[in-house]
Amino acid sequence: MRNKIFILTAVHNEIVDTKKLLRSIYSQTYKNFAVYLVDDGSTDGTSKFIQTNYPEVNILKGDGNLWWTGSLNLALRRILEESSDNDYVWIINNDCHFSKDTLKNIYIFEKALGGSKNIIGSVVLNEKTKRIEDNGVKIDWRRLKFSTGGTDAISTKGTLYPTAVFKKIGLFDAKHFPHYFSDYEFSIRAKRMGYNLLVCHKSRIYNKAERTGIGNIPAKPSVTQAFGLLVSRKSKVNLMLQINMIRYVCPKEYRFGSFQTLISKIFKIIPLGVK
User: Fold this and answer.
1) Do residues 201 and 124 lie in contact, with contact meaning Cβ atoms separated by under 8 Å?
2) Where does the pLDDT of residue 10 fall: very low under 50, low under 70, confident under 90, or very high at 90 and above?
């Protein structure tokens, strides 16, 4: 008997992207799945559309303050009540789409490995350029740099988790990583507890890359831009987020170098932003 896969995503508006995601999900050749979607305070009719057109989707509601990590945890608590240790959770962003064999490919890849301690990511491509944006994560802690093409961490863009991993090590860390880097933190925590991080190259996800938060630092940021880069939850260079990565995730032997790098990053932003 095929294992059940609980497909999990979270949305806040952007109904056009969600429609494309749902079309991808319900075209899958692997059929033993259930969909859990967290609507975190959408005001564009997302829930009504899904209830009308995809009544089988399990919708959980937030008030707009859950963000990505809180949304995942809300659904995971429900999924863990309804799943067995032999099932899986496949987490996917709502701004992604994929071919009909994607779920089957990642499932076959996982079953061929054997064992039950594998977390398997996908190859993520920019939907416009077809350039690889994410292929597992390589981390240079000294330079506080996260690049594609490694298995030091795994993002949540099309990643398959055994349900048992959440029972063993807990959920995503919403306190310290409410939006970004909670997936990296979780996968690093899992790896340290004996789980294998892998990438299935036949599982290919197409992502709307321009929606992936604030990450590029302008050559001459204004004061407003500099402030936003350092404090916005939508910014991948958010100051507190980076401090928390160093404090709670970075290996002890690299923390001093990471803090030095962080300080230099801040000074690359602030002086240029102050007029």
Assistant:
1) no
2) very high
3-state secondary structure of 42: coil
CA 273 – CA 218 distance, rounded (Å) = 10
Q: With b meaning 16 or more CB within 10 Å and e meaning fewer, what string describes 226-241?
A: bebbbeeeebbbbeeb
Q: Which of 101, 139, 141, 140 is nearest to 122 (CA)?
A: 101
Going from N- to C-terminal start, the domains of the chain cover 5-211, 223-273
Residue labelled with tokens 């939508």: 234
| Percent of the chain at pLDDT exceeding 90 | 76
Q: Domain 5-211: give its CATH architecture.
A: Alpha-Beta Complex (3.90)
3-class DSSP state of 242: helix
The whole-number average pLDDT for the span 57-70 is 96
Is the CB of residue 106 less than 8 Å from the CB of residue 122? yes
C-alpha atoms less than 13 angstroms from C-alpha of 11 in its C-beta half-sphere: 26
Residue 242's identity, in one-letter code, is: Q
Please tell me the predicted confidence (pLDDT) of residue 272: 45
Spatial CB neighbours of 41, under 8 Å, sequence gap ≥ 6:
12, 62, 63, 64, 65, 66
What sign results for the dihedral spanned by CA atoms 61, 188, 185, 268?
A: negative
The token pair that represents 57 in the structure block: 């989707």
Which residue(s) pair with 10 in the sheet? 38
- Cβ(119)–Cβ(195) under 8 Å? yes
Q: What is the mean pLDDT of residues 228-249?
A: 80
**DSSP letter for each residue of 117-139:** -EEEEEEEEETTT--EEESSEEE
